[in-house]
Write a structure and sequence with these properties.
alpha/beta; TIM Barrel; 39% helix
Length: 398
């Protein structure tokens, strides 16, 4: 299922291959986020042309719309969206908490600060005088839909049932996503509950599955606390998962160490996925310290605001300097956008509110990340990781 092709000398990082029913994933690999069975503004053919190897859908969103039964009937998420390659789904845990404003039973926000719901104006009266709740108990979480305020419930067993119906190649155990501001006492409580839910997720998966083709990853939690992270890695790593996710909040200044604490303990022969990390510089820390795959909405979300990655750093294409810049967005980039259009044209599209702006910007950003990660893999295979990392860091500025 997973083989290590070569390791970074003196580090935990490695290049490898994850085998799935819909093809092999060459690692390190960036996983494009297709929350609702679509990577926003791109077609599957465009993803394939860019070089994307795997797409991640969101169990929470697909459960709410169109419903997992429809996705199952379509033949699974890949067939439903017209994507032929490997797929993942997350458990829905993060969205259950974050999109419900995630109030604990005590009323303390887990994802602070609480904000007005984005659909409040469209659903007049639905949310008036009513808090959006995500109430946790030992069995699971009861939450309100961000779409219409209706009440729903996820348990580890229900999350697995939904994900199996969606039919991704790799799915994740249901976990509790804590706020980065939570104190250590609550982080421990949530971590221990995540461990119990992991065992239940694993048992449910084994009971419901008809073959061994769908891989289940357990998730390590513990917040920013070294002892909790290590304890969680020890506990989750001892369970019979096919691979592991590293979730929760990180201190950006020390993310590499936090990932290393976990990777030193988790079984070396199984793949590790870092949830929600996609900044170019952060990816070096993730790979060097043992992560094989990682997903993040940043490349696509930032693209839609006009924030584009270049070898010299991120730029804002709406800045006045680009109105008359007839060079490519990133000189030397081989993506469709840079080969065919100027920075001035992309800037014009954004300024004019044209839909094509989102497509061209997203093609560029996703291509940039995919190319960067492919370069990391090649550097590991050629035993020149240090030189590759140094060269990138010398040019790239945040």
């Amino acid at each position: 299922m997973f083989q290590i092709d070569r390791k970074i000398t003196g580090r935990l990082g490695r290049a490898g291959t994850i085998c799935t029913p819909h093809g092999a994933i060459s690692t390190p690999a960036f996983v494009a986020v297709g929350t609702k069975a679509t990577v926003k503004s791109l077609t599957p053919a465009q993803l394939e042309e860019i070089g994307v190897g795997v797409v991640l859908g969101n169990a929470y969103h697909l459960y709410l719309e169109p419903g997992e039964a429809i996705v199952r009937r379509a033949g699974g998420i890949g067939a439903f969206m017209g994507w032929r390659g490997p797929t993942m789904t997350d458990s829905g845990g993060f969205q259950v908490f974050s999109l419900g404003a995630a109030l604990e039973a005590s009323g303390r926000s887990k994802i602070a600060p609480q904000r007005e719901h984005p659909n409040k104006r469209k659903n007049v009266g639905v949310f008036q005088n009513r808090a959006l709740l995500a109430n946790i108990d030992e069995d699971g979480v009861t939450f309100t839909s961000y779409k219409d305020g209706s009440e729903h419930r996820f348990t580890p067993e229900r999350s697995i049932e939904i994900q199996q119906a969606i039919g991704a190649d790799i799915i994740f155990a249901f976990d509790e996503c804590t706020s980065p501001t939570a104190d250590k006492k609550y982080q421990r409580e949530a971590m221990e509950r995540t461990h119990r839910w992991a065992a239940r997720s694993l048992e449910s998966h084994l009971q419901l599955t008809t073959d061994n083709s769908q891989l289940l990853f357990g998730i390590v939690q513990g917040g920013r606390f070294e002892d909790l992270r290590k304890e969680s890695a020890q506990t989750i790593g001892s369970m019979e998962f096919d691979g592991f996710g590293i979730g929760g909040s990180f201190d950006k200044r020390d993310m590499g160490n936090a990932v290393r604490w976990v990777s030193e303990i988790l079984p070396e022969e199984k793949p590790r996925h870092l949830l929600g990390i996609g900044n170019p510089l952060d990816l070096f820390e993730a790979v060097e310290n043992g992560c094989d795959t990682f997903d993040c909405v940043a490349p696509t979300r930032e693209a839609r605001t006009g924030a584009l990655y270049t070898k010299h750093g991120r730029i804002n294409i709406l800045n006045a300097r680009y109105r008359r810049d007839f060079n490519p967005v990133d000189e030397g980039c081989a993506c469709y956008t840079c080969k065919n259009f100027s920075a001035a044209y992309v800037s014009h599209l954004f300024r004019s509110g044209e839909i094509l702006a989102n497509t061209l910007a997203t093609i560029h950003n996703v291509h940039f990340i995919v190319r960067l990660v492919a370069g990391m893999r090649q550097a590991i295979l050629e035993n020149c990781w240090g030189a590759f990392r140094k060269a990138f860091h010398c040019e790239y500025r945040e």
